[in-house]
Amino acid sequence: MYTQNEMQWVSALSTRPSLESALKEVIEQADRLLEGPADLGLIFISSAFASEYSRLMPLLKELLPIPALIGCGAGGVIGANRGGLTEEVEGSPAISLSLARLPGVNVRTFHVEAEQMPDLDSPPDTWVDLLGVPAQEEPQFIILADPFSSKINDFLQGLDYAYPGAPKVGGLAGGDGTRTTALFCNYELYREGTVGVALSGNIVLETIVAQGCRPIGRPYRVTEGERNILLKIEEQTDDPGFGGTGRSPLEALRELVQTLSEEDQELAQHSLFVGVVSDEFKLVLEPGDFLVRNLLGVDPRVGAIAIGDRVRLGQRIQFHLRDARTSAEDLEMLLERYQRAIEDRGTSSAGALMFSCLGRGEGLYGEPNFDSRLFGQYLNNIPLSGFFCNGEIGPVGGNTFLHGYTSVFAICRQNS
């Protein structure tokens, strides 16, 4: 039994092919589990229902009026079935609904179009005015965005500027392979921009960002670069003051690949990434210290490499590989670390959200429900819901980034 002042989250999932039947099932299931009225709802609906997105909000408003609601269309959804087991449903009709009772928590939803966003040179107050969320309340954010129109990187940079240190998690709405996007906020359907909720007061939102990569070789330092192009790098040594003209990154990469096992050489042909060190002051680097970015292409003429981020002189990088085993080990390491931390604190969590890349799931692991099942092994009895994204939002090294091939978890508990 939950007391009146205790936070409660519930998760429900339906795989019925009829929109009305699926919606009624998740509402009935969630209502049965939640002890008292909900303060917040999160709904994720698979792109198999894309032609019926416009019908969802009127139906939901009639069946489940709640004061704050956000959600989106998705390539797949995650939630708890009638038996209480978490399922990841990919490529077939499904609806996931989470309801939360949040005593002592301020809940503010928002929808922002790209044209409304302040210039990145604007003061922090302009972002605060846009969202209507005072910075002194120390809000924590759940963000859902359209992949095509939201200017999400600018949005995240602006939020980090206005609300430094505040957790920000979420994902880009999935689709059916077209530009048909659905974002939901307080029973309204939006096709563009960003929706979200700011939570402040008696709540703590903790994050796990599993990028699923392992470093290979040694770190390098950028000695020459332009925009997102690595032109020269030099191998890092124990001397923090080393310097030089550097060498071609493509040449360094070719030499590195020759030292790898046959299995890793094969993996490097299609699953090679670049990790950018997130904390320049940290000397001994671990897997979680990198912001992993795509390797976009090479120029054999000059030996340059293009990556999915801007590069800076003096920045440290390291090449990475990704496969199913590495992704599993990375997530397990992070979950184990988080489990130890909460045991040391003696705290318990009420609910969690999972934002996972469309490139993970069964396509990566060859079996369903892998990431969510691993989460449950370390953090059991925590209701989990979420969706498969076109990009995942989560913090690394104190700043918020848009990721790929990542699973981001947001774990909520009371502050007291």
TrEMBL record:
Location of the protein in the cell: Cell membrane
Organism annotation: Tychonema bourrellyi FEM_GT703
Domain FIST: 37-237
Pfam families: FIST, FIST_C
GO cellular component, one term: plasma membrane
Protein name: Histidine kinase
Matches recorded under PANTHER family: F-BOX ONLY PROTEIN 22
InterPro entries to which the protein is assigned, alphabetical: FIST_C, FIST_domain_N, UCP018953
Keywords for this protein: Cell membrane, Membrane, Transmembrane, Transmembrane helix
Superkingdom of the source species: Bacteria
Residue ranges of domain FIST C-domain in the record: 249-396
Claim: Zinc is one of the keywords in the record: no
Keyword ATP-binding: no
Entry membrane topology: Multi-pass membrane protein
